[in-house]
Amino acid sequence: MITVFENKHAVEVNVATKCGCSTVIDILGYPHFNEFRARKGRSKLIREKKFSRANKLYTTDIISISRIAVVRDPVERLISCYTDRILKKNRNGMRNYIPSFDYLVENLEALQKEFVDLRHHSIPQITWLGTAPAYYNYILSTKKLQSEFTPLISKISNISIPQTSHRKQSGRLRRTFEVTTENKKIIREKYADDYNIYGDYFQ
Questions:
Q1: Which residues lie below 8 Å from residue 199, measured CB to CB, with a gap of 6+?
Q2: How far is residue 108's CA from residue 142's CA, in Å, rounded to a whole number?
Q3: Contact in structure between 81 and 24 (CB atoms under 8 Å)
Q4: pTM of the entire predicted model
Q5: Staple partner for 142: which of 9, 20, 49, 190, CB 3.0–4.6 Å?
């Protein structure tokens, strides 16, 4: 996604699903509105051609562009996918077909073929980010969206963005299942490319 701020500085932020997309959108929108408007704000900016989901610049009248990748440990990401898309929202009735986190981990590839929503939220991050970390000026973990991403966007836009909590309340659901050492081992194997290319930035 790309947005151009009023001071003619632009940012391109690439972030995979379940890696803080909503938070990133909220923070990027703040300099335009001086408040957090989440995805509704993004829709307005898209209509005004101040925001692009397809990494398209609608103007060449910019001073600079900063390229940022936001990444997340694949174990945490798949846990989030299971908690949100299956346990909480039960997209496409997936809860009827995926009885446990163990089952998801062990049958991930087959389930991704069966359920588009699951695939969209769990395909490797390199699908979204590419395989060349050197393309980016900054690579930040979702753990640093408040401590580093927010101040960075404040600096680029020259607008002070307040610290705010964007965390969703999913702790109760997360406590309903166990993530075993074997689960983590399998996930690391399935997402080996993510770990090999962006693993240094997951913390």
A1: none
A2: 23
A3: no
A4: 0.92
A5: 20
